[in-house]
Predict the 3D structure of the following.
Amino acid sequence: MTKGPISTTEQSDESLGLDDRVKPVSLRDVAARAGVGVAAVSSVLNAARSTTRVSESTRSRVLEIAREMRYQPNAAARALRGGATKTLAVLFGTEKASVAVTNSYVNTVWQGIILGVEEARYNVIILGEPWRSADRSLSALRDGRADGVIAIGVPMESDLVATLSSNRIPVLVIGGDSDLDFVVSVDVDNKAGATLAMTHLLELGHTRIAYLAGPEYQASTWERRETYHGELRRAGIAAPDAYDVPGSNRPEDAIESAGRLLELPEPPTAIFAANDKIALYAMQAARSKRLEVPRDLSIVGFDDRPVREVELSGLTTIRQPLAEIGAVGTKMLIAKLQGVAGSPSRRVFEPQLIVRTSTAAAI
Amino acid sequence: MTKGPISTTEQSDESLGLDDRVKPVSLRDVAARAGVGVAAVSSVLNAARSTTRVSESTRSRVLEIAREMRYQPNAAARALRGGATKTLAVLFGTEKASVAVTNSYVNTVWQGIILGVEEARYNVIILGEPWRSADRSLSALRDGRADGVIAIGVPMESDLVATLSSNRIPVLVIGGDSDLDFVVSVDVDNKAGATLAMTHLLELGHTRIAYLAGPEYQASTWERRETYHGELRRAGIAAPDAYDVPGSNRPEDAIESAGRLLELPEPPTAIFAANDKIALYAMQAARSKRLEVPRDLSIVGFDDRPVREVELSGLTTIRQPLAEIGAVGTKMLIAKLQGVAGSPSRRVFEPQLIVRTSTAAAI
DNA sequence: CTGAAAGCGCTTACAG
DNA sequence: CTGAAAGCGCTTACAG
């Protein structure tokens, strides 16, 4: 770089000694060498819904020559022509991508996504332009860069999925649900997970159990809340309204919410938190109130995110198979894109109770 | 999806009630509405090195109309025309992407890359097809999908960077060096890092210090080894040849290598390991030999990868600013791509000694 | 100052 | 069975 300008056009070939560059070989090059038209080559190289029929001898000769010349179709031309890009655009909830990739939930799902695209020889693109509203971003998603969209943690009230759907852009929703056309979705079984958590606490003898919610814009927050109330009802326990408190992904808010719980005249002896992050904030709140976990307070989280804090803290939690969710979802989306008959539109994954040291029998 | 086929072409608009899809607006649409030619619109919308000149009044009118119509240029068409895709392809060393993204070094660098592309409103693409040889993958990198390449942890002997360079494809090398044209690179100062590690051990009074290497195909393994020997020489210490042992990222190999060290007639009292992962294997080997760290053996790693194992183990190590390396490198590549005058081709980052509990004074 | 045209590489309907 | 042509949306030389 220090030795010459960057642009290809600004510099003649002679001025750079090391130039063994060759122009990429095009369909026309292959056609010329094979002595056939480009249509024939195109037809041979694609499984071909083209009307152009080619004899077996021509077919094999073209194939041979294309391989010999290391022909590689130009992705831009194909995309422009309206063909598949074999690329999926990944959209991260409301957040900027740079924030999302530091989130352990997203990160683990992401590993699954990569596994999924790799198996299918697809590609993934992350757009540097945050999408904000669906309306504003729609065109960016139809400009020939991607065949479909993977949406992780999109807020319930967002019009993104609906807009994509009505524009016939296939979408995978991770961590949510939708019965719209062109939408496939994967999620953990939130009801089953919340039931595991509540049953665990109930079996430990807790009756004063609180629910520390996650962000209200997440569907999972509501599903887990509903199960929380349902399980209490089933156990014949009447929990005060004050036991169902809003959480947040913002540390201050979550810690304050948990703090309020612990200052109630009759504080809970156990907290079911809507996710691990919030559960850890609850632990912090307990600590600052000089309460000992699990002696004075049992805490259960959700997710079992593979980060050191969770393991270090000894948090009992509900594990989601996050990487599997990402991988299976991605494969479902690709199957839909490829028109695989009978490919599922929805998969729900079983959670698992992971007992560590943040829960103990009620005193 | 359950209600209808996926493909746009297979289904008439009438059969789907919810279709509020509109064809993306093209340059021509804007031109028609503005009553000018497409060339004029193109010229206005791009800072325009085009020869087409447009009056100020036309310019502002076109701008207004384009915004009104939410015109979004088609990326595929631009790419085909030879323009910038504003997309960077990320290539992960020898590994499959799915393996690489589970690696904590790669993961942290990745977070920086996303930050970098986001700031510049660029995009990143990960190709599902593993690249293996540069020769085989070259065309895939010139098919209109990306303007440049980010290569993480490419083996020393790989021809990838050289091939890209001679084909005038700008590359960012992360964790390596190169003075080829079209190549920019970022890395930690390996010499400084190894010096920090060795000085720490020497100051603790260790004289029997071994080097447990990383994979030999990594340049860093060699640079750290060289510094290891240099620092011993400077301290007037003659280390036996058997103290410089090959490591590997494969657990069995690394553990065995470390084990051999510990079984020497005169075993080392300290080990400088070429990276954290290998340092943890050394710890494991020590444990299986009933040696206590740091009482019987001090261990220093390299990277300070943000994973729970490193912190849980109390490993003393050399921290690299991995996210920063990724972010700064990405911005350097983009600057080169955009022809920013005087943008640097090389940046080296200072490491930092993180003392935890795996090192202690020699007895 | 502005418009019409060529062409990037591909695929698919259309003629022979 | 095969070839020539149109056109996807854009940018950039080229004519007016």
Residues 171 and 183 of chain B are 5 Å apart (CA to CA). The domain at 87-188+323-349 of chain B is CATH 3.40.50.2300 (Rossmann fold). The first strand of chain B starts at residue 87 and ends at 92.
